[in-house]
Automatic annotation (TrEMBL), chains A, B:
Family note: Belongs to the NtaA/SnaA/DszA monooxygenase family.
Domain of life: Bacteria
Record: residues binding FMN: 59, 96, 150, 220
Single GO MF descriptor: oxidoreductase activity, acting on paired donors, with incorporation or reduction of molecular oxygen
Organism: Rhizobium miluonense
NCBIfam families linked to this entry: FMN_nitrolo (TIGR03860)
Name this protein carries in UniProt: FMN-dependent oxidoreductase, nitrilotriacetate monooxygenase family
CDD domains from the UniProt entry: Nitrilotriacetate_monoxgenase
The keyword Flavoprotein is annotated on this UniProt entry: yes
């Protein structure tokens, strides 16, 4: 134990009705919630009561029109985070945005503005868009190939970092009486690269965090490279200890190879927790919230999702991990699919067992509050993860249950805060203040 | 007088230290204000006390680095308006944004989000960027020619309007028990035009105003065309009654020619008001706030700004209006320059007189609170204008003086509200709810 005690980090996703498309049938509230700013305020207040590090908004600039589900990404995340920051103190905000379909200048300006307004509580989750429905909202061109999207995302963040630090705060002190400012404190960046040409300077000075904390969500090879270069908080899907340790090593080794301090990276994967008075109750809730209705239903979905021939499939036979390696050329988030193949390559599991290990691609933990707390602490205690991003099946219900029943246990075990102490997200996550070219 | 009494509309600009670059020397506050969200909250509260229709943020996505002035456009206007809407009730927000350097999908989503969050208090001022320093922040390409920028802006708004209304609110009522929503309530727009290809639908439903009110700021030919097509609130520079009447006729005639109801347009030009115990005091303040120091200084600046040969120039000779028609090909806001030539073509003025008629391109009114109130009512009473957008030389000082001294006179005269009554900006401005393709 060092002087500063290592702490469990917990974020919570609060998109619309919760993480699972079908769980809305069992939630408190009505369909107007998803478009109601007061609803998001209530969710954020609930998260604040639970002393979460931050609330997390995933995003996707296109409407997903599953008639059986619900709209998932509606109100613009940064706009929503900005208003929530005015309404709820202390807690941080993770806003997802696309590096494929934004310009670095506008995005750097907006996010620095939101960071200033929130007093340094902004984390931005930069994603490289992978969906043709998104591309179709931004022109006639198809999606660029994956490698190009990641190269563009990396240059995007290089430019954003230079813009965020294009004002020299040190010059603020020494200004003649007859001048309002030292105009030379803001310097052009004159960037000219493969994807972007940006003169600068930004018209917003350096913010309370130097720049917003950068989260990164990819776990494909390109995603790991981007995480190693730029990610400060890594959101990913880690389904087991060996898979998590391998992932963490890979990201940190790559960071070292790029000359970056690997201690400036926090890994907070997604987590779906379903609580019950006992494990059996949690299993039944899982079957309901997933929309499959039963264990057989979960297995049938597993067969379908993985393109398995159902004829003669034995749900109690050990699965072959080779069978589950995702095709890197398919048009979707490759990283998400890797979770299952990584799990199976480290543990011998049957389909019946595997369906209880993940939900919506993320680690699933089922059981009593004590069992869930144990499972969370388990991978945190040895540093496999730095914490989790809770993805509640239902909002507000599963956030409320977690805050009421699990948080006190985590506090009793001494791994989780009992009050907010830090002001900025960099302080809360123990991340360094970023390099500024002015020194 | 009809059943609904016609009302004077007043907005107030609250960029950084106020409208005039040099007036900061005479303002209350320090240089940290411009980057401090609490400062903008205080200005908005002051505007709320004065019952202004809305606060106005001009914008420019580039840093203007005049060492003698101050940064003018810093924090992103929409981010700032979003947080201010959470902090200050009733008042509206005009956020300026570029149609040249934004994508319609992102902008439509962000602004609809902000409109929902503010309960229908958003006005968006869509401008076609004219500055090469802006272009240099968004790529290596030079600015497109003016005609192309306006054609692009018009198509931009066509697309945005279709996105804003891509959900059918009527389908909200009739949803089966086992469904969260009617996914068919959101329809693709499948736009494919000269500048944009956008599939849609938007992932945000229709907002409280149908869509945010659209303000338009250009007064060049292209700007008038855009205003006639799309503008609901026109921000412009009108320096005299005949010029204002000619402008209003032109915009409304063009709207009619385009098949649009001209009664759905409000004209609220900029206005710089400088108050004094008497006119002499106001004149001296004008000389100080303009940074010219004296009447001779104002005349010298006039000579310089208009490229006049100072040798033998007689400041008391009547000016030739032909001399002041701006070159439509120069790289700046042509509309602004037209104000002066329009003024001179309708009134015989000397340079000594002309310098007291506008400041920062806008109508200047100087004198006691009664004189200023009279001048405001004068052009409003016969419908030349629907109101004004006050551009206070100094913030907060000139807003405070106006609220304390001029607002009560306008209220006494029965032309200005004594309390907020309407919720949305459409209601406040008496603008129609926009057309929705679902009827």
């Amino acid at each position: 134990m060092t002087a500063t005690k290592r702490q469990l980090h917990l974020n919570v996703g609060i998109n619309t009705t919760g993480y699972l498309a079908n769980a809305w049938r069992y939630r408190t509230g009505d369909r107007h919630d998803i478009n109601n700013p007061d609803y998001y305020r209530r969710l954020t207040e609930l998260a604040h009561k639970g002393l979460f590090d931050a609330v997390f908004f995933s995003d996707h600039p296109a409407l997903m029109t599953d008639p059986n589900g619900r709209p998932f990404h509606t109100i613009d995340p940064l706009i929503l985070c900005t208003v929530l920051a005015a309404q709820v103190p202390d807690i941080g905000f993770v806003a997802t945005m696309s590096s494929t379909y934004n310009s670095p200048y506008n995005l750097a300006r907006r996010t620095q503005s939101a960071d200033i307004i929130s007093g340094g509580r902004m984390i931005i989750n930069i994603v490289s868009s992978f969906n043709p429905n998104v591309a179709a909202n931004f022109g006639a061109e198809p999606l660029p190939p994956r490698s190009e999207r990641y190269a563009k995302a990396s240059e995007f963040l290089d430019v954003a970092k230079r813009l965020w630090s294009s004002w020299d705060p040190a010059r603020e002190g020494d200004i003649p009486e007859n001048r309002f400012w030292d105009a030379a404190s803001a310097q052009a960046i004159d960037h000219s690269g493969d994807y972007f040409t940006v003169q600068g300077p930004l018209n917003v000075p350096v913010g309370p965090q130097g720049h917003p904390v950068i989260a990164q969500a990819g776990t494909s090879e390109g995603g790991i490279d981007l995480a190693a270069r730029h990610g400060e908080i890594i959101y990913c899907n880690i389904l087991s200890r060996p898979a998590g340790q391998a992932f963490g090593r890979k990201v940190r080794d790559r960071a070292i190879a790029l000359g970056r301090d690997p201690s400036a990276i926090r890994i907070v994967p997604g987590l779906v927790a379903i609580l019950g008075k006992n494990r059996e109750e949690a299993l039944r809730k899982h079957e309901l919230f997933s929309g499959t209705g039963s264990e057989d239903g979960l297995i049938a979905r597993f067969i379908k999702d993985n393109g398995i021939n159902p004829d003669g499939f034995d749900p109690d036979a050990v699965l072959d991990p080779e069978r589950f390696i995702p095709d890197p050329n398919r048009i979707q988030a490759v990283g998400m699919g890797l979770g299952l193949s990584d799990l199976l390559s480290h543990e011998q599991l049957t389909a019946r067992q595997a369906v209880r290990r993940s939900e919506g691609h993320h680690r699933l933990v089922l059981g009593t509050p004590e069992e869930v707390a144990d499972a969370i602490i388990d991978l945190w205690a040895d540093g496999t993860v730095d914490g989790y991003t809770l993805q509640p099946p239902r909002a507000p219900d599963d956030i409320e249950e977690f805050v009421t029943n699990v948080i006190p246990i985590l506090q009793d075990r001494g791994v989780y805060r009992t009050a907010y102490e830090e002001k900025t997200m960099r302080e809360r996550y123990g991340l360094p203040y970023p390099f500024n070219r002015f020194g």
